[in-house]
Write a structure and sequence with these properties.
289 residues; alpha/beta; TIM Barrel; 8-stranded parallel beta barrel; two-stranded antiparallel sheet; 40% helix; globular; disordered N terminus; IolE/XylAMocC-like; signal
Length: 289
């Protein structure tokens, strides 16, 4: 953690800068820990109520959903029922992952509108695009078309009080001419309407610097996926604080990024999953927030 002197110095600079900088400079960074429920994808379908209870017991205050569909809903629970379950456990769901490939490819709004309705019903602020199929990547023109569709989705969602955000992996950083798909998305989307959920692990694994992205695109990253990189095998995750990524340093740039929600995601486990998510939450609350 920063020393008290360094903290006070930084706080003074932020306070002074807020007089002349845009609103991201004075935005309050995340103060609670969230969990992307995909981390517990093997446990959830069999016992959604029990799993949500254990997430709360592990010290989480927020969750990020995934996998909603009109047919299966939230693991068999309607949005209203799932919201009640979250409320019972002192949890909120400010964001969720919803696939937008069909809308991006065809413009068909049916699934998008159903997702917006579900996200609104559980009290979410963000619908996050978790992934793009191969056909929606490609060359510069295709990335620009995808960016335009994100703008269109944001305009549709806005009337329901929902924002659109985009979650990265590493393929977005592959060269596209003199740029990358990620840079195209950042530059071609409306900064006020389309935000980004930075998966820090994938940014680092792709060889890029999260702080440079925060600096170049101030205030665009209200959500971070926090998962650490295993020291021995960079292709797998480890518990936050146990790997190679300096999250303390990154969090010192939270205001620059516009951070509001810090979300743990663990894609693989080398210990009991509930022990793992608790270890990450305990480290974040003790050492970072």
């Amino acid at each position: 953690m920063n020393s008290r002197r360094t903290f006070l110095k930084q706080a003074g600079l932020v306070a002074a800068g807020a007089l002349i900088l845009p609103s991201y400079a004075c935005a309050a960074p995340a103060k609670v820990v969230g969990l992307q429920l995909y981390s517990l994808r093997e446990q959830l379908p069999a016992d959604v109520r029990g799993v949500i209870g254990k997430v709360a017991q592990a010290g989480y205050k927020e969750v990020e959903t995934y996998g909603y569909s009109v047919k299966d809903k939230f693991w068999g629970l309607t949005p209203k029922e799932f919201k009640a379950l979250l409320d019972e456990n002192g949890l909120s769901a400010p964001s969720g992952h919803y696939g937008l490939d069909n809308f991006i490819a065809t413009g068909n709004q049916e699934d998008l509108k159903a997702d917006i309705e579900a996200a609104s019903a559980i009290g979410s602020e963000y619908i996050v695009v978790p992934y793009l199929g191969d056909a929606l990547r490609g060359g510069e023109d295709q990335w620009k078309k995808t960016a335009q569709k994100l703008n269109e989705a944001a305009a549709i969602a806005k009337s329901n009080g929902i924002k659109i955000a985009y979650h990265n992996h590493d393929f977005e950083f592959a060269p596209v001419g003199n740029t990358t798909g990620y840079e195209i998305l950042l530059k071609e989307t409306d900064p006020e309407a389309v935000k980004f959920e930075m998966d820090i692990y994938w940014v680092v694994r792709s060889g890029n610097d999260p702080v440079k992205l925060f600096t170049d695109h101030k205030g665009r990253f209200p959500m971070w996926h926090v998962k650490d990189m295993d020291k021995a095998d960079h292709t797998i995750n480890t518990e936050v604080g146990s790997g190679t990524i300096d999250f303390k340093k990154l969090y010192s740039h939270a205001n620059l990024a516009g951070l509001k929600h810090l979300i743990v995601e663990q894609e693989n486990f080398s210990m009991d999953p509930y022990a793992s998510i608790k270890q990450s939450a305990d480290y974040i609350k003790k050492e970072i927030l």
